Amino acid sequence: MESKEFYHHLPKVELHAHINGSISEETINKLLKRKGREEEISKVKFGKEQTEPLADSFKRLKLMQTLSDCAEDIYIITCDVIKEFAEDNVKYLELRSTPREITATGLSRDLYVEAVLRAIKDTAHLDIIVHFLLSIDRRLGVDVARTTMELAERYRDVSNGVVIGLDFSGDPKVGDARDYLPVFIEAHNRALKLSLHLAEVAAPEETKDILKELGPRIGRIGHGTCLQPECGGNQALVDLVLQHNIPLELCLTSNVKGQTVPNYDQHQFQFWYNRSHPCIIGTDDKGMFDTSLSEEYAIAARTFELDRESVWRLSLSSIDAIFADDDVKQMLRNKWHELKPSLNIT
Ligand code: IMP
Ligand code: ZN
């Protein structure tokens, strides 16, 4: 089987996908056309080899958010993003997004969440299970974070568990994650799962306090780029992550294009994978970074010399870290085993 075909057919789990960063070129063009802004495509999407400082990526993301400013737009982009992941043979997907309020268009946080849930419902015929994490943007402060946590709890209860927890994201250079600790603890007490962007840039004190206070209550860590001593972290941070066995969501192209790691060879994947720590490959913002989950697996395999059996195992082991019940996990593992012969792994 050709390499490209293998990664495409490989059944995959995507756990780190921000809805507004995941919008494909096709959908971006559709939305720009609707808004009469066709010429803006190059401002939104990275070129294939392009990299730029992280701060500039956040400017792009802000622009991308302006593409979806009403409930109908949110519905359209979520449907398209789910279909694209399903076409890439993602069998289980956790989307995350920051519920926004826009007075001018009548968009409220409730309507935002409902539009995402409607899209998940209307794509339920596809061979993909979709769960939803509400994002807390660290630029928006603790009051909004608390509102988002309450929203997540309310919609978890009426969505039959499709809303499953919270993501903590936004520009890592803004604000202090420690201010949000009471919200995280309260969310955990209310049985909401937590995936936190941590150590995306060097912030050893903030990272240490979060890891110490929350420990295994952190369901997964996004990026963890600067945990190791040689990346601006320290051994104590590494030990805490290992001790609590907190899975890491690793997004190679995002980190290289956003210049938080210098190149693929130096990506933290190798460090954690060598320690048999749970590593889950993700896309972060597939539309903006012009990638797909298949491509990310191919890049990881090429860079770190993983054979096809190891790639399949990496994908299979991601199931352990999903925010879903054991029966869903077992159903997915069975599916992986059923599909394995068709991959011709020798
Ligand atoms: P949305 O939440 O669906 O609107 O997706 C865009 C948002 O995701 C951005 O405004 C950020 O808050 C967040 N985001 C996307 N990529 C990253 C990242 O690499 N680090 C931190 N936050 C991110
Ligand atoms: Zn992210």
Give the SSE map.
Blueprint: H1 3-9, E1 12-18, H2 25-34, H3 41-44, H4 54-65, H5 71-87, E2 90-97, H6 109-122, E3 129-137, H7 142-158, E4 163-169, H8 181-189, E5 193-198, H9 204-214, E6 220-223, H10 235-244, E7 248-250, H11 252-257, H12 269-274, E8 279-281, H13 293-304, H14 308-318, H15 326-339
Bound molecules: inosinic acid (IMP) and zinc ion.
Compact description:
The chain has 15 helices and 8 strands. The protein has 346 residues and is of the alpha/beta class. It has one domain (3-343): Metal-dependent hydrolases (TIM Barrel, Alpha-Beta Barrel).
How would you explain this protein's 3D organization?
The protein has helices at 3-9, 25-34, 41-44, 54-65, 71-87, 109-122, 142-158, 181-189, 204-214, 235-244, 252-257, 269-274, 293-304, 308-318, 326-339; strands spanning 12-18, 90-97, 129-137, 163-169, 193-198, 220-223, 248-250, 279-281. It is an alpha/beta fold. It has a single domain (3-343), classed as Metal-dependent hydrolases (TIM Barrel, Alpha-Beta Barrel), CATH 3.20.20.140. Helix 5 (71-87) runs parallel beside helix 6 (109-122) and helix 9 packs parallel to helix 10 (235-244). The longest helix is centred in the first third of the chain and has 17 residues, at 71-87. The structure holds inosinic acid and zinc ion. The site of inosinic acid (IMP) has 17 residues, from helix 4 and strand 3.
